[in-house]
Protein 1
Amino acid sequence: MALIECPSCNKRISSKATECQHCGSQLSGDNQVLSKISHIKRSAQLVNQGLLSMSLFIAGVVVWFWGGEPAEGLRSYIGGACFVLGFVGYLVTRLQIVLHERKKV
Ligand SMILES: [Zn+2]
């Protein structure tokens, strides 16, 4: 059970209470709902970011090894750039997801 502050009197009350036990004001619970929604939205955003990085990584590998031979010249730069960006992007996203999940709603 978490404690939140009453929006009217700022005294600590249970997050599950429907009305403040100090001043009797009704609590809508909107604040919690909003913070939950934004938490879920951020999670979805991070998952998309991870998929995008993964696609970039795979695209880099495909460009690099297209035709069964290691790339040369411009193709190797493009493939290498996608590969590295995708890989780093994926690692960063994983880290962001871990940090995000640690946050309690
Ligand atoms: Zn109150």
Note: The chain has one domain: 29-102.
Protein 2
Amino acid sequence: MDDRSYLAHRLRAGKVLVMTGAGLSTDSGLPDYRGPDGVRRVQPMTVAEFRAGAAARQRYWSRSYVGWTRFRTAEPNPAHDHLARLEGAGLLAATITQNVDGLAQRAGSRTVIELHGNLGRAICLDCRSTVDREWVQREFTRLNPAFAADAERARNLPLRPDGDVDIDESLIHDITLVHCPTCGSDLLKPDVVMFGESVPKPLVDHCFDLVAASRTLLVVGSSLGVMSGYRFARRAAALEVPIVLMNTGWSRAEEIATRHVHRPLREVLQEAVWDVLGDVPGTDSGSESGD
Ligand SMILES: [Zn+2]
């Protein structure tokens, strides 16, 4: 059975657990951590560095401040839309996402587990209360008007996948950190799992349950390079749940997967929607499939 037929066959069987990664959002203008060769291109700040001192948090927030102005304008792309349609048709069990951009939900997916959090919130490391990221942004602007003006100049620097940019150190003045509105701590951080942090165990257990109840694990736009996602593929393999990989580059799960589809997500998913649901609104059904 060719890849296209196999994918349609797995989708028609239902209870497909989708796991998504950064590759799903590259068409929305958000870059991937890794290139097609699987090599990590950037080294984000670890939580230990973040906790260690106000200087690290000043650097983090000043970069994140600039990155957020662009990150928040990203829109779902057709691949997000296709997945939302498959979910709407009742074929998906859930979507576990390693992305922190909230784009799957904005495309209409409802059952989304955010494994690594969401950049749209900030959380206090002292009292664990959360606040809206936009509120933090406004506070930061109010507290640091000179930096905010300088930051305008940094807007065209490359954006990192975690919403950060490589900002010139000279732009980081004496940043005043935004404090937690509940307890006053300055240990406010974006509500995402930073490097060196773990995904909360109840969330991991819930995902393992989803794997066990699924008929297929479909990995979309992720090389599964980090263990936080790879372990679910390993569990699926142990339970003999078929694993379909969908990404253009390397995958850590090559050896345990049933299939690896190395084609652009939006094409493969569009074909899948045609094959399984019959049509895609707003497109010329099937005529561009090219095979
Ligand atoms: Zn607090």
Note: The longest strand covers residues 117-124.
